[in-house]
From TrEMBL, chains A, B, C, D:
One of its GO terms (biological process) is threonine biosynthetic process. It comes from Natrinema gari JCM 14663. This is Aspartate-semialdehyde dehydrogenase. It is an enzyme of class 1 (oxidoreductase). GO terms for molecular function: aspartate-semialdehyde dehydrogenase activity; NAD binding; NADP binding; protein dimerization activity.
Amino acid sequence: MAVRVGVLGATGAVGQRLIQLLDPHPDFEIAALTASEASAGKTYRQAAKWRVDSPIPDAVADMTVTATDPDAVPDDIDMLFSSLPSSIGADVEPDFCEAGYVVSSNSSNGRMDDDIPLVIPEVNPDHLDLLEVQRDERGWDGAMVKNPNCSTITFVPTLAALTEYGLEKVHVSTLQAVSGAGYAGVSSMEIIDNAVPHIGGEEDKLETESRKLLGEFDGAELTHNGMHVAASCNRIPTIDGHLENVWVETEEDLPADAAAEAMREYPSLDLRSSPDPLIHVFEEPDRPQPRLDRTLGDGMAIAAGGLQKSPFGLQYNCLAHNTVRGAAGASVLNGELLLENGYI
Amino acid sequence: MAVRVGVLGATGAVGQRLIQLLDPHPDFEIAALTASEASAGKTYRQAAKWRVDSPIPDAVADMTVTATDPDAVPDDIDMLFSSLPSSIGADVEPDFCEAGYVVSSNSSNGRMDDDIPLVIPEVNPDHLDLLEVQRDERGWDGAMVKNPNCSTITFVPTLAALTEYGLEKVHVSTLQAVSGAGYAGVSSMEIIDNAVPHIGGEEDKLETESRKLLGEFDGAELTHNGMHVAASCNRIPTIDGHLENVWVETEEDLPADAAAEAMREYPSLDLRSSPDPLIHVFEEPDRPQPRLDRTLGDGMAIAAGGLQKSPFGLQYNCLAHNTVRGAAGASVLNGELLLENGYI
Amino acid sequence: MAVRVGVLGATGAVGQRLIQLLDPHPDFEIAALTASEASAGKTYRQAAKWRVDSPIPDAVADMTVTATDPDAVPDDIDMLFSSLPSSIGADVEPDFCEAGYVVSSNSSNGRMDDDIPLVIPEVNPDHLDLLEVQRDERGWDGAMVKNPNCSTITFVPTLAALTEYGLEKVHVSTLQAVSGAGYAGVSSMEIIDNAVPHIGGEEDKLETESRKLLGEFDGAELTHNGMHVAASCNRIPTIDGHLENVWVETEEDLPADAAAEAMREYPSLDLRSSPDPLIHVFEEPDRPQPRLDRTLGDGMAIAAGGLQKSPFGLQYNCLAHNTVRGAAGASVLNGELLLENGYI
Amino acid sequence: MAVRVGVLGATGAVGQRLIQLLDPHPDFEIAALTASEASAGKTYRQAAKWRVDSPIPDAVADMTVTATDPDAVPDDIDMLFSSLPSSIGADVEPDFCEAGYVVSSNSSNGRMDDDIPLVIPEVNPDHLDLLEVQRDERGWDGAMVKNPNCSTITFVPTLAALTEYGLEKVHVSTLQAVSGAGYAGVSSMEIIDNAVPHIGGEEDKLETESRKLLGEFDGAELTHNGMHVAASCNRIPTIDGHLENVWVETEEDLPADAAAEAMREYPSLDLRSSPDPLIHVFEEPDRPQPRLDRTLGDGMAIAAGGLQKSPFGLQYNCLAHNTVRGAAGASVLNGELLLENGYI
C-alpha cells in the first residue's frame, strides 16, 4: 500500500519535478500539495505554470493546493517532500516536524546543523540514525532529513569511491545549468552567449556539505571529513545537468585506472530510485556532457570521465542531472531510505 | 610610412580578425593575402565567407588571394601575420623565414621550440631577443615569433602580476568560446544546451606555454618557470571570450587585496594595441563575464574578478577575448613589438 | 517474426535516430548497416560517432558496417530504411530497388517523381498504391516509398484536417532546429545568438511536397492539390523541433474553434508508431514550444496551438520533432504501412 | 549648447541604452534620471544594475536618481526621454506634459491616440505636426511624441519604400530577441533550446501601429493606411535584433529587383542618428542575420534581404536592432526631430 505524501512548495521548478517523479512511484501517493497563500484554494493546474517536459499528471491537476502550514495539511499524510525556498523552509519546516510529519527536504536551511542528517543514500545511509539524536534534542514526533545541494551531490559520490586512498585536497570547478536557480532564477539576457562565474553561497556549500557527507557517525556524533575543498562555481547556458572539473590529491598514490575501477565498482543500493551502476565511467575523453548524459539511470546516475594524472594527483570530470539526482530525485530517494528504515 | 604586410591563411576565422584589425592600423598596410590552392587567384571577397561583425574592408575585398608559398608572395612585403592551421604552418612558415620574411604567427607549431620566442609583449618582451639565437642556429634572414594559445594568454598576465610572491602551484579550469575552434570547429548540435569537457591538446598548452612565458632569458638560454600548472578545459556555448577559474598557491602569503592591487598596477606597454590598464580588476563578484567584458580595451584587455582566499591560497577568475587578445590581436601586438625593436 | 531490415547511411544523424527507433521495434530486426567506403569493415561502434541521448544499442554496436551497395548487403534483408545524402541516394537507391529491396527512404531525391509515392501514413495512405504504377514503369522487383521533408511533415497534417473547407492560400514561416541539417550542418558560430533566414531549397519543398501529399490519386495518376503555398524558412538555435507559423485562407469560412475541433478529431492510424491523437491542440496561447512539446506521442505527434482569426482567414502554429516525426520516425512509419499493406 | 534632458525609467534595459546613446550625444546633456521610489535618493550606480556592454558613463554614475514625478525633476530640463513601463507611463507621462515638459517616449501607452504623433522620423516626420492638435485638445504646455514598438519599427520602413505600388495585404512573422522583453522579461529556462510562438499584445501592435505610421496627415486629421496586416510573433534565443519574414501583396506588380531598388534609394534624413542608407539591402540570400547585422549604421539601420517573388507577391526578410533602432535610439531620434523642428 502506497504511503500518502505531500509536497511542500509544489508549484516551483523542483516541486514540479517532485510531482513528475512521485506520480508514477509505486510506494508513494500524492495526497497534499502546498504553495504560497496566493495559490491556496486553487487547483494545482491553476496555481502552477507547468513547465516540465511531460504532461501534468491527471491525478494532480485537479487537486486543491493548500497553504504551507501544518494546520492546512491533512493529518493522514505520512511523509512530506519539501522544495521550499530556504528562507521559508527555515520558518515552517520545523513546525511540520513538531506536528509529527517526517520531512525529506531539498531546502538548504539546516543542512549543516549537527543533528540533521544530510544524506545521499548510496554514500552515507548510516547518517540517517542521526534522527535519534535529533528527536532527543528537539523533542519532535516527526523528523527531518536533508539532501545536499545539487552541485555537491554531483561530485561527492566520486569522492566517496576514492576515500580509501585518503582524500586530502580537492579543487572543483562547476559548470552549472540554469534550472538550478529555479524558473525565474536566471534571466535569458544574463546567460545567452555568456557565463557567470559566481553563484551566491554555492562555493561554501560544496566545501562544507561534502565534508559532512563523507564524515563518520559513531552513533552519537558526526565527525566531518578532514579533506579540504576549494570550489569555484559558474553558471552556463545549459538547461539541465551540472558538469564539474575535479582535481584530487590523496595520501596514497592514485592512478587513473584505479580510480576508474573504484568508481565503477562503487556499490549502489537496492532502493527503487538508485541506479545501477551508481557511477557511469566513460572511456571517451570528451564525456560526460550535460545534454547527452544527464538522463543516465533515469537522471539518477553520476557520470564521470576524463580520468587522468594531473601534475598534482588525479583529475577528472563528473556530471549529474541537477533537478533529478541533484534535487527532486534526491529527496525521493531519501524518502525511500526513510521508508526502508522504518521511519514511516 | 606604413609597413607592407601579408596575412597567411587569410580566409579563416583568425585571418578575418587579422584583416579587421590590420585594415585601419596606421603602422601596417595589407599588401598580400594567402590561402589554400583552391582560393588562389580569386578575389578575397570570392575566397572568404566573411563572418566578422563589421563589413569586409574595401581595400581588401578586391585583392587577389595567392597560394601560401614564398614564391607567390610579393617581395616588397616586410612582415607576415600567420594564422595557418598548425600542420600547414609547420610545413611552410620556415620557408617564409628562410626566404627572409619576418613572421608573427598565431599557429601552434613550434611554440615550444627553444629558439622561437613565445611572446606576450606586456609580459615577456625581452624574450624577443631569442631571435638572435634563432638566426644563429637556423641561418634565417627572416625571423619567427609566436604568440601563445588563446587560453594561455587569458591567465598568464594575471600570473605575471603575482610572480614576486613565488608561484608554486596553479589550477586552472577554462570555459572556452566556440570561436576558438574556428568557424567549422564546433557543430551547433555539439554545443547548444551543452558543454564539452575536452579540447584536444589544450590542457598541455596551458601547462607548458605558461611556464615558457614566465621563464627567464639570460641572453643565451631560456629557463622555464618552476611553477606547476594543472589545467582542465571545457567548451561552452559562448561565441567569444574565454573565462577561466584560477587557483594559485604561492611561497609567500598572498592576500586577495594585494593580488588585486598587483594586477591593477601591472604595467602595460606603450604599443598601439596595448590597453591601459592591461588588467581590469572587477569589484563585483559576478564579473568578468564573456558577453559583457570581452570588448574591454577594444578586446585587448585582460579582465579579472572574484579574487578571494581559497582554502589553499588565492582564487580568482579571468577573461580575455579569444580571437582578439587571444589570437589575431596577439599577433598584431607582436608585430608592433617587432617594429618597435627594429626587426622590420 | 520480425522483418529483417537494413539501414542505408547508418552513421549519420538520421541514421542514428533510425537505429534508436528500430532497435526496440517488435516488427523489425536490424540486420544490415551501410555507410561510406571509409566505414565499411568497421564495427558500428567504430564507424559512428554516436550522439543520440540514449546509449548505443548492444545489438548494433558490434555489427560490421558494409558499403552502401546492393552486393554488399545480405540477401535475406526484407526492407531498407534510407537516410542517405540525397546526391548519394539518387545514385544508389534505384540500384537497391532494382535488386529487389523495398526501400523506405527519407532522402529528398525523387520525392516529386510522378511514380514515387510520397507518404505520411495518417494523411495519404492510399498514395502507396502508386507502387503498382512504379513497378509497371520501372520494372523493379523492389519498391521505393518516400517520406516528405521534415518541415513539410510539420504542417501538412494540420492542413489535411482542414481540407473540407477548401484550401486556397497558405503562408508558412518556419523556425527550424539545427538537427535538421545533420550533425555538421550548422556551425555553432553560425547560430548561437543568431538566426539564419535561409535554408537552401527548403521553401520549394514546403511549397511542392505539400501539394503532392494533399493530392488525389485515382489509381492511375496523382493530381496535386490546387492550393498555393508561400514559405519562408529560418534556422534558429534549437536542437530538435520545427515550429511553424501558418496562415490559411479557405473557400468556406473557417472559425478558429472549428479548425481546432477538426484538428483534434483528425483520425490517426492503427500503426505501431502512429500517435493517438495525431494532432495535439493546445489551448494555451504560448504553445506549442519546441523544447516542451517535441516529445509528445514519443516524438510522433503534431502539436498545434494559437488558433485564431487573422485579418485574412485562420492563423495558427504547429510543431513536430524534426528527426523523429520529420525523418527517422516518418520512414519507420512508412515501413509499418508497407508491412501492413503486404509489400513485405 | 546642449539641451538638458532627463531619462524617465533610467534603470531599466531601455533606460540604460538611452544613457549609453545620450551620454556622448553632442546635442543632449543628461541632467536628470528618474526611477521607482525605491531607487530615489541613490546614485545611479547604486540604483541600476548596469548590464550594457560598455562601462557606465562617469558623468552619470554619481548622479542622484529622483522619483518619477514632475515635482522631483529639475525645472531647467528641456526634454524627457521616457522608457517607463506602459502602465506607469500612462499614469505619469501626461503629468509631465502638463507640467510643460516635451516628452519623447518609447512606452506603449497612448501610441494609438488620435492626437499623439507616432513617429519614425525617416518615414512620417510630418506627423509631428499633430502636436498642434494635441496642444489644442489637451491644453498642455509640454508635448508628447511616441515611437512605435520595436517589432513595428523593423518592417515599416521597408513597407514605406514600397507604398507607391499600393500596399494591400501584408503577412509578417517575427523572430524576436529576448532583450525586447526587458532584463527579467524572458527566463533562461523558457528560451534556451526553445522558441515561444506568442508575445502578449505584440501582433496587434504590428497590425495597428503600421497603419497609423503609413497614414496620411492633412494638418488636422490622420487617416490610417488602408492596407491589412496579419502578424505572428515569436521569441527566440537571440540577445538583440528582431528578424522578420514579410510577404507583401500590392495593387501594382512589384518585381523583387524593383523592390530592392526602392528600398536602397529610400531617403534617410539629415538627423544625427539617422543612418545613411536607411535600408541596407543584402544580395546574399542568407542575410540579414541578427548577430552579424544588428549593428549596421550603429544599430540604427534597417537591414533587408532575401527579396524574391512569392506565389502571391513579394517576399523578403528584414532586421533591426530592437533596443537601439527599435527603442532607445528611436526615442533619441524623435528627440532630434523635435529639436530640428523647434519644439525645444
